[in-house]
């Protein structure tokens, strides 16, 4: 019998000044060796729940706290965050704020050193080994990639050898290869080292592959705690809450005839491939790629031209580090361009060159016919608008209306009031007009940042990871917001790891790797090349993988497109006299 390592009993918590509790009578047990995902829509209480585990609530975040927390059967009442943290490691969503020392080894040793443990260095080196960072102890923090920084934050939590690890959004801001690396390490810590793992996660595909069970939070209450297959098969219940099970699970649910209650669905493409083949027959050749409509390419004006562009910087050791290596590129009016590639490929650097934030070390950049090399960004703000990955970096005023107006007034543009009202209407911000943008949800902040950028009517809008740190339902909303942008700007460019967003939105996909453009084409051209995606550190969506597995004539980018293909095939098989129509 596994023993409970942590137990919450009837925990209720209300933040100061709040009218309603953020947690309501929550009871939960964590057993030794559990690997649990905490799911829920924005504001459901996921992060607040986990902050009760190590005493951050109620000791650091004060408020009205009721109930009891037990650690290995002993009450945590009266124990400090410091005492509880010896047993519990926590990696926050903004993990870079946990990195406090200049070098990797200094940082990983920081916590055990401050606890006065004589073997602090051995603990640090062991944690680096567990996270694949051995040999990097002398590296400076600012030289690490985003994925390496995330691993270092995890190593810092592991240095105390805790029983429980809590990781808030493990794969946020990471490319698919680094995301999988994080989860592979968590699985190894769970299976080989006996750690109890808790992840707060929106990505159901990772939950399906790695987790044992799922806790669902809804309105501050623990709605249920179920085994992972049963949990993710509760498709209708999850969709009502704005939570999206894996694509293959939803596809099977949508195509399920008759009653669905209690049905367990496939969670990955390996399980689902056979199911769909049985349903629709194994011959998919009745429709060929040649019979499908071919998109007509229309030539439009060039908005951006980059000719042999180079970018490099000098490191602290005086060596030159190349970032971009001879970029030749044209972006045209009306395009929806997705820049994809692994962390460190050069996506953000390329966009900052277009916006004039960075100056190339070689080659030329033209935007709307203007050579931008060395021009100050304020000269370009009405032509190229760059929206940062963290929206709050753009906020200056104390209201949403004031944020939009500030940028217009700073550029002394005419008709400021009319433009502000138009942006508030276009991006659905009227209800938030007098709110402080820094206190809004992630999706709301993103809408404000896009309204600020679009207000000056730039020719090209550049968005860095527009769906980072958003839950899946808010990401779906972002597609509509991105479409709205085309009413205000000529060309939209996004840098992203979100293949589902690319599949649904982009008209052109540019693949970057190691500072170079290695592919440039339509979604069909890029997504049909699995080897190219792997080389760029990316991964196919489940629908892309399933399309390839079933031999469909075109890679399906949306659930509607895939289920339409399957339903079409089912009808063709049925009317053709084929009896293979089972589910």
TrEMBL record:
Keyword Ribosomal protein: no
Classification via Pfam families: ABC_tran (PF00005)
Domain ABC transporter: 6-244, 304-539
Record keyword Iron-sulfur present: no
Compartment(s): Cell membrane
UniProt topology in membrane: Peripheral membrane protein
InterPro entries registered for this protein in UniProt: AAA+_ATPase, ABC_transporter-like_ATP-bd, ABC_transporter-like_CS, ABC_transpr_CbiO/EcfA_su, ECF_ABC_transporter_ATP-bd, P-loop_NTPase
Entry keyword set: ATP-binding, Cell membrane, Membrane, Nucleotide-binding, Translocase, Transport
Protein family: Belongs to the ABC transporter superfamily.
Name of the protein in question: ABC transporter domain-containing protein
Organism: Paenibacillus borealis
């Amino acid at each position: 019998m596994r023993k409970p390592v942590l137990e919450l009993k009837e925990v209720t918590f209300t933040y100061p000044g709040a009218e309603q509790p953020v947690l309501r009578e929550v009871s939960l047990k964590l057993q030794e060796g559990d690997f649990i995902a905490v799911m829920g829509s924005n504001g459901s209480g996921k992060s607040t729940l986990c902050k009760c585990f190590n005493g951050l609530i109620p000791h650091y975040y004060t408020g009205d706290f009721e109930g009891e927390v037990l650690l290995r059967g002993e009450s945590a009442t009266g124990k400090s965050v410091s005492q509880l943290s010896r047993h519990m490691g926590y990696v926050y969503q903004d993990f870079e704020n946990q990195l406090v020392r200049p070098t990797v080894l200094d940082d990983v040793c920081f916590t055990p050193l401050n606890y006065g443990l004589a073997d602090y260095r051995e603990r640090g080196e062991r944690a680096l080994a567990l996270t694949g960072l051995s040999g990097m102890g002398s590296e400076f923090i600012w030289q690490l990639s985003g994925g390496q920084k995330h691993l270092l934050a995890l190593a810092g939590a592991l240095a105390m050898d805790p029983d429980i690890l809590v990781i808030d959004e493990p794969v946020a801001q990471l490319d698919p290869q680094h995301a999988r690396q994080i989860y592979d390490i968590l699985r190894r810590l769970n299976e080989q080292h006996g750690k109890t793992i808790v992840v707060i996660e929106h990505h159901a595909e990772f939950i399906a592959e790695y987790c044992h069970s799922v806790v669902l939070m809804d309105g501050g209450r623990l709605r249920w705690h179920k085994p992972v297959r049963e949990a993710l098969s509760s498709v209708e219940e999850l969709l009502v809450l704005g939570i999206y099970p894996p694509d293959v699970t939803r596809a099977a649910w949508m195509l399920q005839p008759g009653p669905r209650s209690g049905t367990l669905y496939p969670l990955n493409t390996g399980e689902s491939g056979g199911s769909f083949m049985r349903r629709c027959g194994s011959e998919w050749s009745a429709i060929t790629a040649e019979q499908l409509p071919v998109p007509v390419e229309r030539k439009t004006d060039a908005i951006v031209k980059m000719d042999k562009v180079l970018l490099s910087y000098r490191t602290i050791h005086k060596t030159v580090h190349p970032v971009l290596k001879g970029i030749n590129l044209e972006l045209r009016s009306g395009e929806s361009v997705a820049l994809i590639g692994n962390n460190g490929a050069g996506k953000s650097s390329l966009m900052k060159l277009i916006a004039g934030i960075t100056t190339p070390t070689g080659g030329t950049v033209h935007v709307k016919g203007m050579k931008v090399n060395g021009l100050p960004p304020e000269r370009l703000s009405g032509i190229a608008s760059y929206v940062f990955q963290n929206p709050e970096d753009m906020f200056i005023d104390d209201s949403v209306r004031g944020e939009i107006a500030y940028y217009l007034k700073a550029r002394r543009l005419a008709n400021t009031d009319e433009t502000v009202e138009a942006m508030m209407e276009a991006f659905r911000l009227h209800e938030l007009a007098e709110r402080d943008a820094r206190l809004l949800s992630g999706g709301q902040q993103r809408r404000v940042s896009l309204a600020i950028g679009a207000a000056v009517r730039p020719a090209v809008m550049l968005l860095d990871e527009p769906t980072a740190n958003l839950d899946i339902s808010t990401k779906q909303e972002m597609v509509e917001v991105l479409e709205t942008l085309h009413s205000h700007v000529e060309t939209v460019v996004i840098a992203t790891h979100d293949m589902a967003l690319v599949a649904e939105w982009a008209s052109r996909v540019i693949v970057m790797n190691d500072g170079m453009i290695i592919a440039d084409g339509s979604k069909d051209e890029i997504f049909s090349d699995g080897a190219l995606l792997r080389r760029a550190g990316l991964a196919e969506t489940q629908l892309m993988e399933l399309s390839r597995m079933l031999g469909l004539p075109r890679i399906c980018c949306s659930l509607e497109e895939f289920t339409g293909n399957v339903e079409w095939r089912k009808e063709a098989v049925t009317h053709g006299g084929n009896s293979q129509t089972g589910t």
